[in-house]
Amino acid sequence: MQTPKRLADYTPPPLELRSIHLTIRFAEQVEVIGELAVAPRPGRSPDSVLVLDAEDLEVLEVAVDGRVLSPQDYRYDGAHLEIPWPETSVRTRVRIDPDRNTRLEGLFPCGGGYFTQCEAEGFRRITPYLDRPDVLAPFEVTLHADRQRFPILLANGNCVETGIEGDRHWARWVDPYPKPAYLFAVVAADLACVEDRFVTASGREVALACYVAHGLEDRCGHALDSLKAAMRWDEENYGREYDLDRYMIVAVSDFNMGAMENKGLNIFNSQFVLARPDTATDDDYHHIASVVAHEYFHNWTGNRITCRDWFQLSLKEGLTVFRDQCFSADQPGGAVQRIRDVARLKAMQFREDAGPLAHPVRPESYLEINNFYTATVYEKGAEVVRMMANTLGPAAFRRGMDRYFDRHDGQAVTVEDFVDALGTDSGQDLSDFLIWYRQAGTPRLAVRGVHDPANRTYTLEFCQHTPPTPGQPDKQPVPIPVRLALLDASGEPLPLRLSGEDRANGHERVLVVREATTRFCFEDVAVPPVPSLLRGFSAPVHLADDLTLADRLHLLRHDRDPMVRWQAAQQVWIAALQQAMTSTASAGLAPAAIAGFASVLDDAALDPTLAAELLALPAYETLLDAFAPADPYRLESLRQQLRSQLARELESRWAARYAALAGRDDPAARALRNRCLQFLMADGLEVSYRGLCRRQFDEAGTMTERLTALALLVDHGGEDAESALAAFHERHAHDDLVLDKWFRIQAQARHGAALARLDALMAHPAFRLTQPNKVRAVVGAFAHGNPLHFHAPDGSGYAWVADRIAALVSLNPQLAARLAGVFAGWRDLTPPSRDLMRAQLVRLADLPGLPPDLIEVLGKALADN
Ligand code: B3K
Ligand code: ZN
């Protein structure tokens, strides 16, 4: 039984690594020679033995300080290599078997080539090493391989030498920047290369290269453009330039995650590189830009300054997500970026924070660190950085970041180091925000507004409370910055004067709620205003306000803050659902609510992208979070009924707006047009609009239009759907990435016998259980995006997913553990769903030989807290 690792047990590395030279020979078998130059750590006396991380290697030879050891002089147990204490050097020669590597950690095969993934602990599967992020060293890497099979040989840094020996060749790469092993990468493959260049602010030329499978060269343009935009943005906004002569992006089809920020040699899931208007949707374009930027931004936040230990993961991830979110908000179409980020936070992170897998942004213990690349570490972590950035204001935040880079460049540091550096120059103590890093759970912020006509005051009373989470029964208050305004009857913000101030100070303020109960009293408020709260979603909290439907519609119509408008719209839906859930009579959207949505749809001056967001129903996951424990089947059915109601009531308007946007060919118009089509295809109305939908499918000029139409057709089934699916398949049969969309749409469709369809998808020749994108497109899409069938009242959906997870456990534990997380929410359901879901967890937990990834997730999901 493995014991958890704990933040409290941190000790510095036993010695210093001066450099590493790695030689990898790709032949029938792969041999790796690791040469480490070591030095004592000042102030630490030598031990008798040194323990190196070394997983699943065949150890062929070990030499210490130049002396080759006989096998009795070292010990290897498959996980650690114990050797006599070295004075100056260690040399190991090992054999590895990448062809059997379906876990996609360490060195793995894909499409005839070899690639690596070392974060978090994959490097130990390549060579014995001190595989921990606080051990930094300059790397030199020499790769030898067959010229024909592996014409491309890449590693981090700059290529300094190459050579040819018969039908083999070699390349030597040097990365001068000391780095932890998790940022190591190599590639040996036969790939096409698309080149570009970037001139940095100081005039240095950087060669950019995008490596993809042959034939896909025309799909790299957007990734390269995004890269250049990100490079410029980091110079302009953070004063950070790129530091090597070469920046490479390599696309692979089999990858556990989105992408990896290896120094100078990013490896990407091809999903986040390849795009052409006929193969990728507007959303795909958007995600590519954001992932490319994210990995690029890591060069400073993560690579130049890295984490002391894996508990500090959010130091690089939360900060880098914050940076990529700001970048995306600055790009064309960025006006709704914040809304999309918050929608995602609410759907994923809030649920995580409310369930058995809840953990602080900086976890305190783990069994398997791969289980902590979570929405909490990433997205909530980004929210915490955002709160501190907003508290400081742009100029002081920039000074704080400059201080951070200055003070810690080349180091492996902690969250405390970051928070301290941020506040130093402006003299602001941000240490209160450390509670956000320590404490799990989403705070509930209840607010009540009281107007006193006699004294012309308006008091906002805030009460915060964070519910208990596993291992943390009692919570402290956290600082909650609330950006707010008070709107008058015409929607204009009032001047804000707090009691004790001698004059009004702006029309929007940020007030920080620090105590369990905090009151703010505003003067000169003649009539009750409508409070516009948490503008820009200024803190990651559940806001429980006492607004009426009329107040919310007032905000939806008039607020200048798009975020508040969106939150108001979401609340209107949630309130209607609340009513429908509790009453037996047919409840629905009130006429005023329908009029409110109509006014959004009719507002020709409104950015169509924003209109599309304001007209979106809350995500199913968000609803589950709001209504737990709930009958998932009923919840989704009611959600569909409300959609149908708004569809019917505004039918002619949806149709008119749809038609009016027909002449436009831009992402904003497509977003709203697709939203209109979605309502026109709601249950009850779709019979009349199938033809229109099919026409959109047939005549689409972009994947965005084609895919939305296909999804809506397939959701309802029938002949049109089948023939559209066949046409789509025929058109894209040889395009692996586009086929994923075809799989996904069918996995999410409500119509028909879902499980039979899923089985058929898995039998499709393009489906492989060893390709995570396919598994996510079928199993993941079904579990997360098909509530009616996944939560089928007989439990068959749960059993089907659990069977697939069981099949994945030994192939790819990381992916299996991630998928198993979908069952963690069993307590949010009412019986019998809750018991049926729990039964699948128990079944999985009983499987023999479970890896730590699964032991941790299943154990937590089942624990009584
Ligand atoms: N740092 C990687 C994620 C690694 C996940 C390891 N299980 C990608 C990113 O966040 O940029
Ligand atoms: Zn990242």
What report would you give on this structure?
This protein is 40% helix and 21% strand. The model has no long low-confidence stretch (mean pLDDT 97). The two termini are 22 Å apart. The protein has an eight-stranded mixed β-sheet, with no helix packed on it. A five-stranded mixed β-sheet has the order 17-18-19-21-20, covered by helices on one side. A four-stranded antiparallel β-sheet has the order 10-11-16-13, with no helix packed on it. It is an alpha+beta fold and 865 residues long. The structure holds (3S)-3,7-diaminoheptanoic acid and zinc ion. The site of zinc ion has 4 residues, from helix 3.
What is this entry, summarized?
The chain has 865 residues and is an alpha+beta fold.
Top keywords for this entry?
single chain, 865 residues, alpha+beta, Immunoglobulin-like, Neutral Protease, domain 2, eight-stranded mixed β-sheet, five-stranded mixed β-sheet, 31 strands, 40% helix, globular, binds (3S)-3,7-diaminoheptanoic acid, binds zinc ion, Peptidase_M1_pepN_C, Peptidase_M1_pepN_Ig-like, alanyl aminopeptidase activity, Peptidase_M1_dom
